[in-house]
Amino acid sequence: MRVLKVPDLFDLSTIMVSDFSPGGAFGSDTTEPDFGFAFNDSNFSDRVLRIEIMPDSPETKSDGDCCSSIADWARNRKRRREDFKKEIDVVQRQEQVLNFNVPDTVDGLTYENRDDDAVAMIEGSPSDVGLNCNQIGNDTAYDNYSSLNKDHLTVLRVNIIHISSPILAAKSPFFYKLFSNGMTESEQRYVTLPVHASEEAALLDLLNFMYSNTLSTTTPTALLDVLMVADKFEVASCMRYCSRLLRNLPMTCESALLYLDLPSTVLMADAVQPLADAAKQFLAAKYKDVTKFQDEVLNLPLAGIEAVFSSDDLQVASEDAVYDFLLKWARTHYPKLEERRRVFATRLGRLIRFPHMTCRKLKKVLTCNDFDAEIAPKVVLEALFFKAETPHKQRALASEEANAPYRHFLERAYKYRPVKVVEFEKPRQQCVVYMDLKREECAHLFPGGKVYSQAFHLGGQGFFFSAHCHMDQQSSFHCFGLFLGMQEKGPVTFAVDYEFAARSKPTEDYISKYKGNYTFTGGKAVGYRNLFGIPWTTFMADDSNYFINGVLHLRAELTVRQ
């Protein structure tokens, strides 16, 4: 019987470069024909795929045999990565030439690459001894792979699958290069593909998918195995299919962290990005209020920390609290100073929005030993320049980075509202404090809410604003109140002169509302239940004199009394 050659079935040269684009042959989202009837059918095949099953290490069984949960899959995957590193060490000691990708170390941090690159040999017949390894997927020749397998790995069994090279080549750049590299071997009938026993089931599912565009498996662990093998053999459409199925399954903290811990080659694939994004969004939503889950968040791995603290909706007291928490996390997980500096320089530093930190905390950044001496001054200087900009310029800078994965200038939903402070030392200790509240923030105060400002300091004492919605003294209507409090508790006394003011239409200048003097003791506050002397409904009306472009502008001047 005559052996059919690839050109007899279809001319691979007719596949144009455009077919390799995201909308082309590899990974197209359009409806594709179902060739499931032809899978492993010699009548519709021009090649024979010999899948050589190599043993995993004694400690690692097939995922399908031992993984009943995401946690089992993660532990097994970790063992397989460690075992793979041991295999590489053996190969290097014997000076074998083999291009496996092992974990790379960048700036002291480990980024996981794929466990092992796909390798295939094409033979004239199953009994050929001298196998020629071709350049598959990259420019490295796996010259001694055959001898490596014979010397170090035992072939447990061989699966024979009848395949159609046009179908596989249309789905995978790996198989396309395998069948069309122009060498004599590319026209041979038999192809040998060595895989670990733990990959066998996933590979068969993958091959079936390349024909039928569907998978019979629906469990998370099996889908993860297929996803890994699909990445190994560059089948983008299957990676996208697995990613979609995994996104449709109920997400847990455990599964989200596992998805973010996949090898970097998998996570960087466009087909897997939606899954990674969904995992990040789940973690960001679950730990939105960090103060309620401090212990849990403190135990998260680095990928989980990045997902949580890159969120704009993070509910924290202030950006100072973000800085303090990440410093505590880094000291817990990276006890060595050199490693801690590296992780701040490459990963954690970009999570902190330094422009929204207080000046007192920025001073501490400059002297913090956990930051590289060259990085700390740069981030502090950038923060100070931002603070010096006009509000219009600040909003413009924040909008420019709206689509960036990590934002520096955009303000989060802080529990304590940011303030701007101008301090004077002479002729008397004095500060002018500005706080802005959006109309929506004021609306949320009704009927009995309150919002606090971040702390500011005068004469070594800490103060804060608190804005309220409550009933007036006669309890006849709701109104807007503003109070000034001192943080320190105990026998401390501190006397100040104060003045409250707010911008008002039509001039939009600050108009003084109340002034006076007060001697603070620890935990006490002074203020006015009805700052504007009007009911809440008038204050919040569309034609209110106090909201300018939807923002209420408040100011307080504090002077230390002699």
UniProtKB/TrEMBL annotation:
SMART domains xrefs: BACK (SM00875), BTB (SM00225)
Matches recorded under InterPro entries: BACK, BTB/POZ_dom, POB1-like, SKP1/BTB/POZ_sf
Pathway this chain belongs to: Protein modification; protein ubiquitination
Residue ranges that the Swiss-Prot or TrEMBL entry lists as coiled coil: none
CC annotations in GO: nucleus
Biological processes per GO annotation: protein ubiquitination; response to red light
Keyword terms: Ubl conjugation pathway
Domain spans labelled BTB: 150-219
Signal peptide: none
Keyword Lyase: no
Role description: May act as a substrate-specific adapter of an E3 ubiquitin-protein ligase complex (CUL3-RBX1-BTB) which mediates the ubiquitination and subsequent proteasomal degradation of target proteins.
PANTHER family linked to this entry: BTB_POZ DOMAIN-CONTAINING PROTEIN POB1-LIKE, OS02G0260700 PROTEIN
Stated name of the protein: BTB domain-containing protein
Organism whose genome encodes this protein: Gossypium barbadense (Sea Island cotton)
